[in-house]
Design brief:
156 residues; alpha+beta; 3-stranded antiparallel β-sheet
Length: 156
């Protein structure tokens, strides 16, 4: 049985407050592109933010309605969809947020982070080439051939 097995992070509140807090944090993140919050809250909203951007990349009316239901702000959703239509995040498939740790908060020692939207284009890694084996046999054979040639000249 699934008694008291709520999906997701609890954040120390009931479900209505958690939902409202996550909505507010998502709105702030999309409005200001970076916010300072606790590590637990940042990890809780990371999936919601990625999901909203993925909906914006699809761009259809159903995705727009899902985003409006999630954020409860039509103007903000319109801005997000316009950014995506202009090519922002066009080369990314996932990983639209970055979390950078700041250290503990002074009052209660809670780990603080900055969560921000990633705007840099994806840089593809260079393909690693297999290390070429150095042929150690050939130089030794050449040296022996040179030695034999020198010794035959010296013998004459």
């Amino acid at each position: 049985m699934r008694h008291l097995k709520k999906r997701g992070l609890r954040l120390g509140t009931d479900s209505a407050h958690t939902k409202a807090m996550k909505r507010s944090l998502c709105k702030s993140l999309f409005t200001y592109d970076r916010i300072k919050t606790t590590e637990t809250r940042a990890k809780a909203i990371r999936g919601d933010v990625d999901r909203i951007i993925t909906w914006a990349k699809r761009g259809d009316i159903h995705s727009r309605r899902l985003a409006i239901a999630k954020l409860n702000d039509k103007e903000l959703v319109r801005e997000i969809f316009e950014k995506v239509a202009q090519g922002m995040w066009s080369d990314r498939t996932c990983g639209f947020t970055r979390i950078m740790k700041l250290g503990p908060r002074k009052g209660d020692n809670a780990p603080m982070v900055i969560i921000e939207l990633v705007t840099e284009p994806v840089q593809k890694k260079a393909a690693k080439k297999a290390p070429q084996k150095v042929d150690t046999v050939a130089p030794v054979a050449e040296e022996k051939a040179e030695e034999t040639a020198e010794s035959t000249e010296a013998a004459e």
